[in-house]
Input
Amino acid sequence: MSDYETVIGIETHAQLCTASKMFCRCQVPASAVGGGDSQQPSPPNSLVCPVCLGMPGALPVANRQAVEQVLIAALALNCRIPERSWFDRKNYHYPDLPKGYQISQSQSPLGRNGWIDIQVDATIKRIAISDVHLEEDTGKLTHVGGSSLIDFNRSGVPLMEIVTAPDMSSVDEVREYALELRRLLRYLGLCSGNMEQGAMRFEANVSIRPQGSSTLGARVEIKNLNSFRALLRSVEYEIERQQRALQQGLPIDRETRGWDEEKGVTYVQRSKETAEDYRYFPEPDLPVLEIDTVWVERLRQQMAELPQQRRTRFASQYGLSPYEIALLTEDRDTAEYFEAAANAGRELDISPKVAANWITGDLFGLLNAAHRDIGDVRIPPRQLVELLALLAENAINIPTAKHVLRVMFETGQAPKEIVVAEGLGQIADRDRLASLADSVLDAHPDIVAQYKGGKQTVLRFLVGQVMKATQGRADPQLASQLLEEKLRSA
Ligand SMILES: [Zn+2]
Output
């Protein structure tokens, strides 16, 4: 056991899936709402207006949809919702911030004092959420050679910030927290969670202290972590760096560090002495938000089922294993696909367990190989179940079912159509298989002799020969049974 205890808090920035920006009517770029690769990105600086360009005199108007989305997130994270909330100006100068200040929330966030449960191994741990607030995103700088280019399309995109208490103590907990938070925001349709496109970004505060000490060590903040990999690797690196420093009797400074993905190290960006004072003050151009309980209750009613609720329901309703539940509830599309299949299965007498096996096994395999999401799959859940019904009534065997599934995946055709068109129906005709068994036995006297000599495992080879003769369409159980009968009586 280590002599040191690690204390970690995470700040998450999530771009909201709203139609327009936070304080103007400009469209939010596709990258922010998860438009994906299919959508052409808008040309730089094409989704802008005087408000999001920070022109003097332009007046902001708060986006109601964004406020509601943050309230929903705050409710889902079990936060206390204040009766009044307002925006503050966070003053600093940077090229991606033309106004010289960012509109954010400092004193009165939309949510406070909440929590989220995470599971590491078999243990549930409650992570406190100290603050959920709303702000605007900045422009985006791209450095090319010696120059910097700026795109203001991202400027003013609604950004939610979720801040935890320093409640995590390992990289595993950080991973589970980040995954569960992303899952929750995606379930609620609030954020695409697309990290490659920057829709979700993390910052980690890491400190360590001697085991049993109650005072926190100096807090090191790691900024701009744009992937799960960067988040986890940087936290791991920082824990080791700080432990090494303490072991060597070196001080740990309170500072902000960056993450160098290539070298795999954190590096100093800013020390505490030069930390910025943002001089927050209430934004004079925006009214205070009055949040009445009727509004909050209406939002609570509208809230979609949360990942944790769905996991609990899947366990009691479908009798699936924790592993299957984890796979099937990873995102809402998968969970809904499975439920539609389970419902269709009730009519066709296919159990949810069997549907779950095929979805998490063969269907996931096809999706992975094709780099596709279940949302784009061409197999309606009902047709998947029809395929499983053909298998259950022995109309086809397992290898054929796998083949048919592949064709369904590629063409969107119904399973029965494929079976008929390709002549794949299983051969369960006793006489036909019996005569095939005879010719296989005649063709392999050596194998028959081995069997009679006591080597019964060669039966599998003989069954294989029958399968081969029927292009895999023979009912393997019946073939095996017939061969065995003949070998015994011969
Ligand atoms: Zn604008």
Observations:
- The chain has 15 helices and 15 strands.
